[in-house]
């Protein structure tokens, strides 16, 4: 624990240092920025200095991140609690053979991908039709990674969306599917049901609802369903022809799955060519992650900055702030990616962690967040590291002036967080407004910004499919590196199971089929009130 303790000591020693002081070195920005492909990652507005960076790199070396990464890419079963390989990267590196238990898994991956391409083209070109004509709308029914990934990606790549309209249903709340289907035509709608086992209760409940909705107007609704599942028996029982069932192996985790069949709705929306470009962007980031030295490696550095802030500076949350409206769903996607992956309390050997695991991840796109929660970030009592991302150019040339205003706001916020405003500066402002004495001092204190609030910025030219793929892969590998350093399994999610089990047990209690004996007093009271209100 020597390096760990050295980093704790370092964090303690610099906690009162103003980040702005580090910019007295005119080479600060260049020295604490790294480039790879289309990306510039600037972490100079943090309290990381050269000594800290060296220690963090030593920590990555001590944990042998590179060896663990190679084990992942080569098909080793690094998801030890489930005995599974972790090969989502194989879905975007289609030219590389990968072996699991001595078997090359890539021929099947390539075959499934080819079937996806054929089906997507058939839908887009009107060769696959609904029973009332060409498909106009696609409804993807899934939850978690089977929803967040394609929903986020379809919005992100809206400028490339030239296929049928896409809609996403995830919540078991009937309002979600009701409102989604309300304005659609059953005769020209394709429903994609995304559930690996075809047993996910929220997904299958919504799928049955969609099937009933379609059956009211369509003779054979199952003809307009496709499935993203490995259960041939259950999809057949639902009535879905095998030609429209796209399976994937258990080494593809839900929150890492949009690169394969789970991305079918995205492929239909933007077309196989642009979908392939998103895979290419992710594959390029994969190659960079595997080859670049730690001190030049964007995913490693992003992870080390996160570890520094969370584990050593004790900042419990981080805000993801894309200044890109089309990345509006990225913070929610990263909530699952990071918090489900690294929200653990025991290490790989089952022992309690001696430090905190992953942080709380949250955020909104700029500039909306500026008029919502930035007040807390700037002047609140807790430090919240911020992760800005912004494109140099938008997709709307006639609105370039608005994009420049967007970029200006992004850069201004990171500068303001770092610089702050001193009491002397605030007092001078109040003096210019004609105030003096106690009232001047009182008003000035309300206008003080402590500053030294850390942030990073990820800059890219434009949000293209290739750039988008690189961003998502960057964050996937960041989560992986943080998990390796923390010594946890980032690829299981047992924390989601208990509530699901209890929900299944509570359903008959709510319906009156079960007395609920043995439930706690609060749950019994709530059940009784709900039953009374429902009559």
N- to C-terminal separation?
61 Å
Total number of β-strand segments? 14
Assembly state: single chain
User: How many distinct helices?
Assistant: 20
Radius of gyration, rounded?
25 Å
Average pLDDT, rounded to a whole number, is 96
Give unreliable regions as ranges: none
Function: Catalyzes the reversible isomerization of glucose-6-phosphate to fructose-6-phosphate.
Family: Belongs to the GPI family.
Pathway: Carbohydrate biosynthesis; gluconeogenesis; Carbohydrate degradation; glycolysis; D-glyceraldehyde 3-phosphate and glycerone phosphate from D-glucose: step 2/4
Keywords: Cytoplasm, Gluconeogenesis, Glycolysis, Isomerase
Layout of helices and strands, plus pairs?
Elements: H1 2-14, H2 28-31, E1 33-36, E2 39-42, H3 50-62, H4 65-73, E3 99-100, E4 103-104, H5 106-125, E5 129-130, E6 133-134, E7 137-141, H6 145-156, E8 165-169, H7 174-181, E9 189-194, H8 201-215, E10 225-228, H9 232-238, H10 264-270, H11 272-291, H12 298-312, E11 317-323, H13 330-342, E12 360-362, H14 374-379, E13 386-391, H15 400-419, H16 423-432, H17 437-446, E14 455-460, H18 465-486, H19 497-511, H20 521-534
Parallel strand pairs: 7-8, 7-9, 9-10, 11-12, 11-13, 13-14
Antiparallel strand pairs: 1-2, 2-14, 3-4, 5-6
Active site: 340 (proton donor), 371, 500
Keywords: Cytoplasm, Gluconeogenesis, Glycolysis, Isomerase
Catalytic activity: alpha-D-glucose 6-phosphate = beta-D-fructose 6-phosphate
């Amino acid at each position: 624990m020597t390096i760990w303790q050295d980093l704790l000591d370092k964090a303690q020693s610099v906690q009162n240092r103003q980040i702005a002081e580090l910019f007295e070195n005119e080479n600060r920005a260049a020295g604490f920025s790294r480039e790879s492909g289309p990306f510039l990652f600037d972490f100079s507005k943090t309290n990381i200095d050269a000594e800290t960076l060296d220690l963090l790199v030593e920590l990555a070396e001590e944990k042998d991140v590179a060896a663990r990464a190679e084990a992942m890419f080569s098909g080793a079963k690094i998801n030890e609690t489930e005995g599974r390989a972790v090969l989502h990267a194989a879905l975007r590196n289609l030219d590389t053979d990968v072996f699991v238990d001595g078997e090359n898994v890539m021929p099947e991956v390539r075959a499934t991908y080819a079937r996806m391409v054929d089906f997507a083209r058939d839908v887009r070109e009107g060769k696959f039709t609904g029973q009332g004509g060409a498909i106009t709308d696609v409804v993807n029914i899934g939850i978690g990674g089977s929803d967040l990934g394609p929903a986020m990606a379809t919005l992100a790549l809206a400028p490339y969306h030239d296929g049928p309209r896409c809609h996403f249903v995830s919540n078991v709340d009937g309002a979600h599917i009701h409102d989604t289907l309300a304005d659609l035509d059953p005769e020209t709608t394709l429903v994609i049901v995304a559930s690996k086992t075809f047993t996910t209760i929220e997904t299958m409940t919504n799928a049955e609802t969609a099937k009933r909705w379609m059956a009211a107007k369509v003779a054979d609704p199952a003809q307009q369903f496709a499935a993203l599942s490995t259960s041939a028996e259950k999809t057949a029982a639902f009535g879905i022809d095998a030609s429209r069932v796209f399976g994937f192996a258990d080494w593809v985790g839900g929150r890492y799955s949009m690169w394969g069949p789970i991305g079918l709705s995205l492929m239909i929306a933007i077309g196989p060519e642009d979908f392939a470009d998103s895979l290419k962007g992710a594959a390029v980031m994969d190659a960079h992650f595997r080859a670049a030295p730690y001190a030049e490696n964007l995913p490693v550095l992003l992870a080390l900055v996160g570890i520094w802030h969370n584990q050593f500076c004790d900042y419990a949350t981080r805000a993801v702030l894309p200044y890109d409206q089309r990345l509006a769903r990225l913070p929610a996607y990263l909530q699952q990616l990071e918090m489900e992956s690294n929200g653990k309390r025991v290490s790989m050997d089952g022992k309690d962690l001696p430090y905190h695991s992953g942080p709380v991840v949250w955020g909104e796109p700029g500039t909306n967040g500026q008029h919502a929660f930035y007040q807390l970030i700037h002047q609140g009592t807790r430090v919240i590291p911020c992760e800005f991302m912004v494109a140099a150019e938008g997709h709307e040339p006639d609105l370039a002036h608005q994009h420049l205003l967007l970029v200006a706001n992004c850069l201004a916020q990171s500068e303001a967080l770092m610089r702050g405003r001193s009491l002397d500066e605030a007092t001078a402002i109040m003096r210019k407004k004609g105030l003096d004495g106690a009232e001047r001092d009182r008003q000035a204190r309300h206008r003080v910004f402590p500053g030294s609030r850390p942030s990073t910025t990820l800059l890219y030219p434009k949000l293209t499919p290739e750039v988008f793929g690189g961003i998502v892969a960057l964050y996937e590998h960041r989560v992986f590196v943080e998990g390796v350093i923390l010594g946890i399994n980032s690829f299981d999610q047992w924390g989601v199971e208990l509530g699901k089990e209890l929900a299944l047990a509570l359903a008959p209690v709510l319906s009156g089929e079960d007395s609920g004996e043995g439930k706690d007093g609060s749950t019994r009271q709530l059940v009784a009130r709900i039953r009374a209100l429902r009559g």
